[in-house]
Amino acid sequence: MKISVALCTYNGEKYIREQLESILAQTYKVDEVVISDDCSMDNTIEIIRNIESRTDIPIYIHRNNTNIGFIRNFEKAVSLCKGDTILLSDQDDIWYPDKVESIINWFYENPDKEVLFTDADLIDENGEYLKSTLWQTLGFNRKIQEVFDNGMGYEIFYRDNIATGATMAFRGEIYKTFSSYCKYAFHDEAICFIALNDDKLGYCTKKTIKYRIHDSQVCGIGVIGNSQSICYKAVNKPISDRLIDLPLSHRLIERKNFIEYRKKAHTSPFGVFKVIIKWKKFFKMYKKYAFEFMKYDIRQNLINITTKMKSIFANKC
After folding, report:
1. Cys-Cys crosslink for 226: which of 137, 249, 264, 304, Cβ 3.0 to 4.6 Å?
2. What's the pTM value of the predicted model, to 2 decimals?
3. Grouped pLDDT means (10 residues each) for the chain, 317 residues
4. What pLDDT, on a 0 to 100 scale, did the predictor assign at position 144?
C-alpha cells in the first residue's frame, strides 16, 4: 500500500516546519508528501525545501500560478498524489507519531470503508492544549455517534459537517470524483457525502493530530465557529425518501440551502418565522427533522436575545 499526504500551504511559514517534520517522523513512513502552494508570499517554500534536503521521503512541491483558494488547492494536491491511500493535511497542525499507523490499521480492520475521519486534540497558536477536543467542539458525542452507527449519517451531515479534513484519509476511487462536487461543498464535505452515498464512511475515536486554533487560519473550526450544542432530536429523525432519492449533486444543493436557512434563522430575533414562509419546502423535504431544528433555533434566538439584553443593561450600569 502506497501512502500519500496531500498538504496545502499558503503563507504558512510560522507552523509549516513543525507540521512537516511531524509527518516525516511517523512510525509508519509515508511514501510521498505532495504540497500544493497557493502563491505564498513568505518563506513557506524555502522552509519546505530546507526540510526536503534532509529527508529521504520524496516531497513534491507544486506552486499555483494564481491564488485559487483552499478548496481548489486541496483538489490540486489530491490530483497530484500517486498513493493508494491519501491523507489530507493542513499546514498548521501537528501529527501524533502513530497517526499513519493507526489509520492504516483501521482500514485493514474495516475493509468495507473507504473514508475515515478521527478526533483531535485542540491547541492554541503557542502549542498549548485547549480544554476541549475537536469532536467535543463539533458536538460529535457518543449519542450522535450512535445515530451514525445506526445508519443515519446523512441526518448528521445535513445538519453540519463533523468530519474535519485535517483528520481525514481516503482510498479507492473517491479522489477521481470528489472535485466535481466541490462547487456545492467544501472538499472534506464532498468526500464524506460521496462516501455516505455508498456507506463507505467511518470514524475512529482516536485523536490523531493536534489541531491548531489561531487568528490567521484560512479555514477550520477557528474560522467557521463551532456547534457545541448539537440538536440530538433533530439528527435522530430520518430524512424523507424524497431527499434520499435525489442525485448526490442535488442533495448537496438542498443541504447548502438548508444551512443557509438555519443561518438566517439564527441571525435575527424572529428569523425562524421569517424563513418558514420562504422555505416551506423544507418541511415537506425534512418533515420532523426540520421541525426539531426550528424549535432548537427558536431556543437559540431567545438565548441570544437574552444575552444581548443583559449585555446592554450591564453596559448602562
Report:
1. 137
2. 0.76
3. 95 96 98 97 97 97 94 91 95 97 97 96 94 89 86 77 93 74 77 86 97 71 45 48 56 64 56 55 52 59 68 66
4. 83
What domains, with CATH codes, occur in the chain? 3-223 (3.90.550.10), 237-316 (no CATH)
